[in-house]
Amino acid sequence: MRTVGIVGAGPAGLSAARILEETGRVRAIVFERQERVGGKSFSTPRFGVIHDLGTCYSTLAHRDTNRWMREMGIAQRSIGKQAIDGVALRRFVTGGRSFAAAAEAVRFTLAWRRQMKDFATRAEDPAVRAAAAAPIADWLKANRLPAIRRFMLRGLTNMGYGFLDETPTVQALRWCTPTLLASGSLDQIKAPMGGWQGFWERLSQTLDVRLGQPVTGVKRDGRGVEIATPTGAHRVDALVIATPLDELPLERSAAEQEVASAITWGSYVTTLAGVTGWYPGDEVVAFETALTPGAAPGALLSARPAGKKPKKRDAARLFVCGQYGGGHAPDALVDMLARDLEARGAHLDHVAVQRIWKYNPVYARSAIEGGLLGTMQAMQGENRTWYTGATFAFESVSNIVAHNRALAPRLLAALDGAAA
Q: Which CATH architecture has domain 264-362?
């Protein structure tokens, strides 16, 4: 049986290992530098409740992870109502014009399909490259989609995937799909009971995952790949890189260097905070001023209630609050959070946990126009190396797992060819 070494035990590495091992044709070994699995799926317990401070939602697009949860008996719960500035999300998106918004959703679906087909089949066309590189705000305007623009304020910007005047169209449309729109419309936005990290911990129990094993070096040749860790050298037939390229010590190929140089990583901050004087029911509340292009990093994007309402009105209730990091120090971000809460009549009582994530790799516009997407496709399999994760798919779990599902047959075919 052939062996595949996977670097990173986050959603990308663990789902790749699970998909490959489900074929029964390869053995996967996952190397993880941390002492836990899950990567940016991070869950923390407080007062008997598990809170997700990384990956938080599932949609209808999460086909594989939803199936694995069913197989493991992990139930999912609805995230509840969503609102922007006190207006129910559905009304905010439609502007109260449900029929017109439904017609616009149909136009969006048709435009999305045409555009994604162009990206897949006409990647060498300069016009297609220019469309891929342009900000998603331009695409929305050209296709006359004002309601979808409002939808993306919540579905894209609020989730940490950038402002509409900055995010390349090709990246925005990978996540903001007709399926995502349908998930919201049908109230199919859910979260696993026990948290996302607990799900990945359960999934990893059937896999060979080696925690506390940072990769200290990689050597690739025509016969295979040697992965060095503190416990020694490990020889494998193929390598899957599920971490950012700039975090892995290896002699980069020209394509790897091109991709690493074309990426700008952002930062997203999730804070589990005790707040007093603020009781917006059980809704996830977001704020349009912080989601609109030009908003300052560090502004409070949204907050979702975590746990039960306190019995005493002056007691603190836990909320998971989201901000863009913008290079600010942790204490400065807490100060900004406190300021924004005070502006809404609330008070920051305490910070239980704060996590600042290296998040949302954005492709440089000039790189996309220069053929970056073609490079990223062509380099798959070179030097017995395959690539996954946020850089090559998208930050969301559903995109990453779907990317791995499509990548697995190509990897297996390459191994069969090498063995012939």
A: 2-Layer Sandwich (3.30)
